[in-house]
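COURSE: Structural Biology Practicum
ASSIGNMENT: Worksheet 4, Part C
STUDENT ID: 0417
INSTRUCTIONS: Below are two proteins. For each, the amino acid sequence is given first, followed by its structure token string. Answer the questions at the end about the second protein only.

PROTEIN I
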Amino acid sequence: MGADLFPKTLARMRYRQLVQGGFLLGCAAFLAGCGATSAPTPVVATPTVAVTSEELVGKWGLASYREETDKVRTEAAAKAACSNPYVIGKGAQGGVTMHLADQATAQEVYLKTASDGGVYIGPQGKPGERADRQVLSYEQGILVTRWVDPGVAKRYGTMVFVRCGAA
């Protein structure tokens, strides 16, 4: 009977070691996965912008840039462009008159706010459509916009409007 018990006990001990070893390996793999860092998904913040149609009506110097490092220089160029201002008129239906991309005549466009708080200027419809421009910022008489359509954005760059006559 004693000789019979020894192989069974040995087999149970090996089985326990295998189970415990497998458990420990599983825990180690789990903990290694917890410590691993993957590149975080970039979060593009939607700017909070407060602007009204009435604030847009008037004369503006206009310039554009493609590299963020050119923003300050472009603001100065937009101020200088007040000698030949871009005019944003008051629309008949509560919007403002501005040119859409590649259009020779201005048409009425509207301020539109998306559910994420992003502000757009464009024809009637949902905010953020391809014909819209997104308002990136508006403060101290400087309006910065970028076209939603990637091809148009590439051609025109980031648009900087500086209110003419502003201090």
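PROTEIN II
(use this one for the questions)
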Amino acid sequence: MKHDRIHVDPDVMFGKPVIKGTRITVEHILRKLSAGQSADEILADHPHLTREDVLAAAGYPADHMAREETAFESAPSSDFPTNIRDAGSNEGSD
């Protein structure tokens, strides 16, 4: 997926995705959002950003996760103890 507002350059912020034309990383914006800051609060802290920049930062990892494959472990076999109390119950059964 193409992100016009996000730029990745190995010479800028160690190659982390940034808002184009800035050194503000997508991670920085996401951390502010996850700490409970609103888009308006982020924009007040960084007046050169736009609401679209903040939304692009939020959408960027979502698009990458949508393409990510997830590996699931199979359920443990019935012979394998599922908790510490069960661990001793198979002793001496061989």
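ANSWER KEY EXCERPT:
Q1: Residues 49 and 65 are 24 Å apart (CA to CA).
Q2: The mean pLDDT is 84.
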